[in-house]
Amino acid sequence: MNTANRQKFPRVTAIKTALSIALLLAAAATTTTTSAAPFAYVPNEKSGTISIIDSATDTVVGDIKAGTKPRGLAVRHDGKALYVSDQPTNALLIVDLGTRAVVGSVKVGESPEGVGISPSGDWIVAASEITNSVNFISTSTNKQEFIIKTKGKNPEHAEFSPDGKWLYVSAEEADSIDIIDMTKREQVDLVKLGKRPRGIAFTPDGKSAYIAAELESMVYVVDVATHKVTAQVKAGKFSNGVTMAPNGKRVYISNGKDASVSVIDTANNTVVATVPVGQRPWNMAITPDGKKLYVANGRSNSVSVIDTATNTVSKEIPVGTLPWGVAVR
Questions:
Q1: Could you tell me if 136 and 67 lie in one domain?
Q2: Which of 50, 74, 135, 241 would be 283's cystine partner, CB 3.0–4.6 Å?
Q3: Nearest to residue 198, comparing CAs of 150, 255, 272?
């Protein structure tokens, strides 16, 4: 545009300039939001706290007082709230992550442990060991809407399939996995495994589930379509926690007595690496980009950070006493 035209249309030029600036600011804001490193939340059973780890620096940046024995936990999809099971009070605590304080609680069955969240973000589930049940809490109302009893005794973990159609519940004292049909809202099958099944993780395509059986030191692969065991993988001693890589190529198993994490290639179901970590590794979580795996070490009172590219520990982070697991959001 020549000088005469600029003088003739000063308003148009100003609008274009303002629009360009607005678009640049919006792009910058989007980049900042999407590139922000997630936090890892670690419930410490004996401390009654949740340690907050900044995954950008792998340092503890705060602690939240949460009941007397926090165990399972899940972060709401909007990142504003954290749900934590508190075993002695038979409650699911609601933590406001803005104020980092407990703002409410929901009564659930006796001795709640594992907590999961549906892919849609509509449901929080808490497995109650003594009452052999799974409690369903709506994230929109923060109220318990219904309960499903399990046939297996002492349910610990409850995990949704990626499409939200199934809920798998590990029953420690029944050597089995309870399968709940979410459309029917009832248990429709029970799959026998080895002794003391614990952690569960699905492949991203929802075709297979990996379950660790602690007393067998074995990982079982279950075909979701048929509810049949299709493979068994020998892990370390007392395998318990299970975490799937976001791309589905690797699944990680914590081995309580070996103080290690087994890395399984899901293409051929073989162990391709074993990573030494702290004492009594328990439950774990991986960052959304799959680059870091956080392992709660119950007897070391620490979290090991595994670099998944090299399968080595990049850092050991001190946390509270008896960390139970990790949630990353």
A1: yes
A2: 241
A3: 255
Based on the fold, state whether residues 295 and 177 are members of the same structural domain: yes
Alpha-helical (H) ranges within 67-200 are none
Q: Which residues, including other chains, have CB under 8 Å from residue 302's CB and lie 6 or more apart?
A: 278, 316, 317, 318, 319, 323
| Residue 37 CB partners (closer than 8 Å, separation 6+) | 54, 55, 56
With a CB cutoff of 8 Å and minimum separation 6, the contacts of 75 are 41, 81, 82, 83, 97, 117, 327, 328, 329
Q: Same domain for 127 and 225?
A: yes
- Token pair 């709940």 is at which residue? 180
Question: pLDDT confidence of 16, banded at 50, 70, 90?
Answer: very low
> 4's torsion region: left (phi>0), alpha (psi -120 to 50) or beta?
alpha
Residue 327's nearest CA partner among 35, 64, 34, 30 is 64
Closest C-alpha among 96, 124, 89 to residue 110? 89
Which range has the worst mean pLDDT, 17-31, 104-118, 227-241?
17-31
For the segment 253-292, what is each residue's pLDDT rounded down to a tens digit? Answer: 999 999 999 999 999 999 999 999 999 999 999 999 999 9
- Residue 125 in this model has a pLDDT that exceeds 60: yes
Q: What value does the CA radius of gyration of the chain take, rounded to a whole number of Å? A: 22
- Written as one letter, the residue type at 195 is K
Does one domain contain both 19 and 112?
no
